[in-house]
Amino acid sequence: MSDQVKNKGHDLVLRKLHSMQERQGAIQRELEEAGATGNPARIVELSRENGRLEKSLVLYRAYRKLEREAAEAQMISQDTSEDVEFRHLAESQWIELKDRMEQLLEQILAEFLAGQRGASDSMMLEIRAGTGGDEAALFARDLAEMYRRYSEKNNWRFDVLDFSPTEQGGFREIIVNVRGTGAVELLAMEGGGHRVQRVPQTETQGRIHTSAATVAVLPEPDQSAIEINPADVREDVSRAGGPGGQNVNKVESAVQLTHIPTGLVVRMREERSQHKNRDKAWRILRSRVFEFYDQQRRAARSDARREMIGSGDRNERIRTYNFPQNRLTDHRLNRNFPLEKIVAGDMSELLLALRDRSREQWLESMLDA
To answer: What is the pLDDT of residues 156-214, one digit of tens each?
Structure first.
């Protein structure tokens, strides 16, 4: 990130945090009024917002405290009426405080940019086989395994919610929930088209085939961040197909939810319990509805010349996995990485580079607005 963009970003973030602090003051005054009038629903709503703001303002208050202390030390160091030794001591303190302010400002900027993905550390990762038949399904399986290994290295939870297997052991589709600190921001840029070039297991003549899979990244919103009117959702239950024994075939445990305003459909049949399937389906539906409206909001703010940050456009080819040459090419970074390391779950260098690119683009887009 260039120093010019970074410095402008510091100013932008400090202004936004100052506005958030003023908003928190207004909330606290309104909370007192709501308590006096006995409005519990309003108290809950304001308390949630106050909690979200407080989390963002802790470092900001620490920065402003250092700023006041640095200003006082600088004033003493420049006061000719003070003892020389005392002035030198104040100057040393001022330099130390300025260094601490700079470090804290970097932390504030990093946490603020991370927060643009939402406060949640939980996300839905949806991987679907694309062109390439059985080989594409095997590639979708390999992508899921790659993300599972990376999640394990970061001590994130990796829970499979639903999958559609093929006879060869691949996945037509697999939906997983990844949960952990930093998961949303680090995996946010994985959305898009992934292409693989390799010799398939079923290829007898050693020819290289090209197949594809798509990945969708859907941050799981806090329930307070997205409200879905139950009247807007049609629920259908049916008998689940596939493996699972007699219970799967005889009990109406599969649940399908249709969000009428958007037309989004979620079908969950993995669990034998209708209650568990319903709960999982609602989690996925909330994420998809949130992403649907969030994309509309982002599109409204962007114009033709500005790249939409973190759009997760599934039609965009973002990466090529070239197995014969042990090379992974990320087309957004225009960089190559050792493929063997990446598929083994050692994705940090790649994902940190994408995160930094995303942060800089977001800052530039905000500065241009």
So the answer is: 999 998 899 999 899 999 999 999 988 888 898 899 999 999 988 767 677 889 999 99
Closest by CA to 196, choosing from 259, 129, 122, 147, is: 129
- Token pair, residue 273, equals 């319990």
Rounded-to-integer distance, Cα 215 and Cα 179, Å: 17
The whole-chain average pLDDT of the chain stands at 82
Reference 220, options 285, 174, 156, 268; nearest CA is: 285
DSSP state for residue 63 in the 8-state scheme: H
More confident residue, 8 or 115: 8
313: pLDDT strictly greater than 60? no
User: Do strands 335-338 and 327-330 pair parallel, antiparallel, or not at all (unpaired)?
Assistant: antiparallel
For the chain, where are the alpha helices, taking DSSP H only? 3-37, 40-77, 84-115, 133-153, 183-187, 246-250, 274-301, 339-343, 348-368
Of residues 336, 258, 308, the one with CA closest to residue 116: 308
**C-beta of residue 234 within 8 angstroms of C-beta of residue 263:** no
- Give me the pLDDT at residue 252, please: 66
**Higher-confidence residue: 227 or 338?**
338
Residues 6+ away with beta carbon under 8 Å from 204: none
pTM of the model: 0.68
